[in-house]
């Protein structure tokens, strides 16, 4: 070892100045000797956070199994900060940590065993599976559950028989085993889950946690035979668990490439699921509701828009194929039961874009042209509270519905004392293609505000109208 390396190690381990200890750790990131690695590992216990972080970064830069072997002993440190630093390093070292961790799975301290198991699960260490299987008989319940969870994270089918045995032998690990089998998958896991679920449903007391894990697992590993089992349970289960059951049913049919089948009998349950806090459950409910007719369903689907982008994409696809959509959107916005966001207003805009006024759709003939006036009124009323994105949708929809009404409405905005709003209105009009728009923008060429005039000139120029700004004074 060079004298310089010895000085750095000594400074790291014994200097009273934390700044000097931190610099020594940083300068040792290119060290490769065992002494340097051991010193850096020992510095994980330093009282100064900057020193600990510098030592951790240096160890990660050095890397290799030697670092893992030096760090692994600190999983047993009495200081939780040191233990967590060591665990984080071992996770980040990934496969380089496995051989160092395997002996630790048999440590006399159950907390150390659990730490090792958790890290191996996060790493996804397939070499650890035979050892994890042995720990399914560990005397400590927390270690057993961690071993079950780790096998699920690794996803190795070799663990399935032992997991099944654990399910049968230990009530405290049943939910964890179901979740792990769902992650691992395969025919053996799927068949056992089906049998276990039927037994579970027949038990006098139903564990809600285990029920949820069964339902989640079936969405991943169930087969066609599971679909009939799940459908039969819908009337028997209520509340959030029923919403989860319907979600699993929809996921399973989609994964198996099978039709969903008639869902009308589950309409009320699906409407309840559409209001669930979990966006994934709401998406499944929307897909199932797409097969159920009725204005009440259409209204519920529309009311669900504007809360989650993934859900909005599904809802938009679902509702655009439903009858009387234009009427339903207007009625919903008039009622105040839904936020007038860009999603609902965009539906009005796209619908209006397809209207042929010499061949009006049935809902226009039934309700009269008053629908257009109602639609324009809804859009005008939405303007004051709308954000920038929604206002763009409002302007677009107004011009598609009734360009003359749009101009009358924008006349009011032209007189707004806020120049930013006037500029923003011009920007909203810029991408639209209505013949009246250039004439309307030209009104801003004499605006009192110079920036408004400049925006008007630039917009008209982009549309092919060469003009010069004129002072409004």
Please give a structural write-up:
By secondary structure, this protein is mainly alpha-helical. The protein has four domains: 1-97, Leucine-rich Repeat Variant; 102-222, Leucine-rich Repeat Variant; 324-407, no CATH class; 415-473, no CATH class. The chain has 29 helices and no strands. The protein has helices spanning 3-14, 18-27, 34-42, 49-62, 65-72, 80-93, 98-101, 110-123, 129-134, 141-154, 160-169, 174-184, 187-202, 208-221, 224-233, 240-256, 267-273, 279-289, 295-303, 309-319, 325-335, 342-353, 362-367, 370-382, 388-401, 403-414, 419-429, 437-442, 450-462. α3 (34-42) crosses α5. The mean pLDDT is 88.
Question: Quick gist of this model?
Answer:
The chain is an all-alpha fold and 473 residues long. The protein is flat. The protein has 29 helices and no strands.
């Amino acid at each position: 070892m060079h004298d310089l390396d010895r000085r750095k190690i000594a400074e790291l381990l014994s200097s009273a100045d934390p700044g000097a200890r931190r610099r020594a750790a940083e300068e040792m990131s290119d060290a490769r000797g065992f002494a340097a690695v051991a010193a850096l590992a020992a510095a994980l216990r330093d009282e100064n956070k900057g020193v600990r972080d510098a030592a951790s970064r240096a160890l990660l830069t050095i890397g290799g199994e030697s670092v893992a072997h030096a760090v692994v002993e600190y999983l047993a440190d009495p200081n939780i900060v040191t233990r967590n630093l060591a665990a984080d390093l071992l996770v980040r070292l990934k496969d380089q940590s496995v051989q160092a961790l395997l002996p630790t799975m048999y440590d006399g301290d159950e907390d150390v065993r659990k730490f090792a198991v958790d890290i191996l699960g996060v790493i996804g260490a397939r070499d650890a599976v035979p050892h994890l299987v042995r720990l399914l008989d560990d005397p400590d319940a927390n270690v057993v559950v961690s071993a079950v969870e780790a096998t699920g994270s690794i996803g190795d089918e070799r663990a399935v028989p032992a997991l099944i045995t654990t399910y049968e032998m230990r009530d405290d690990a049943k939910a964890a085993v179901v979740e792990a089998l769902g992650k691992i998958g395969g025919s053996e896991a799927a068949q056992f889950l089906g049998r276990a679920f039927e037994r579970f449903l027949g038990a006098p007391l139903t564990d809600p946690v285990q029920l949820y894990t069964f339902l989640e697992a079936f969405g991943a590993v169930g087969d066609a035979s599971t679909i009939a089992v799940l459908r039969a349970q819908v009337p028997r289960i209520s509340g959030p668990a029923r919403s989860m059951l319907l979600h699993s049913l929809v996921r399973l049919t989609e994964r198996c490439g099978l039709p969903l089948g008639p869902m009308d009998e589950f309409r009320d349950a699906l409407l309840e699921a559409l209001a669930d806090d979990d966006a994934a459950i709401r998406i499944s409910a929307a897909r199932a509701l797409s097969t159920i007719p009725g204005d009440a369903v259409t209204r519920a689907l529309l009311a669900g828009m504007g809360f989650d982008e993934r859900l909005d994409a599904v809802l938009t696809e679902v509702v655009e194929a439903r009858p009387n959509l234009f009427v339903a959107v207007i009625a919903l916005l008039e009622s105040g039961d839904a936020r007038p966001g860009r999603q609902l207003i965009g539906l009005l805009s796209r619908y209006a874009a397809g209207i042929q006024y010499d061949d009006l759709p049935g809902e226009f003939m039934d309700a009269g042209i008053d629908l257009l006036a109602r639609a324009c009124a809804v859009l005008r009323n939405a303007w004051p509270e709308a954000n920038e994105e929604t206002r763009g949708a409002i302007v677009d929809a107004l011009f598609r519905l009734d360009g003359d009404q749009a101009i009358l409405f924008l006349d009011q905005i032209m007189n707004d004392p806020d120049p930013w709003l006037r500029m923003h209105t011009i920007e909203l009009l810029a991408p639209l293609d209505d013949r009246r728009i250039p004439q309307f923008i030209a009104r801003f060429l004499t605006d009192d505000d110079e920036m408004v005039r400049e925006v008007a000139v630039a917009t008209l120029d982009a549309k092919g109208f060469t003009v010069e700004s004129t002072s409004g004074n």
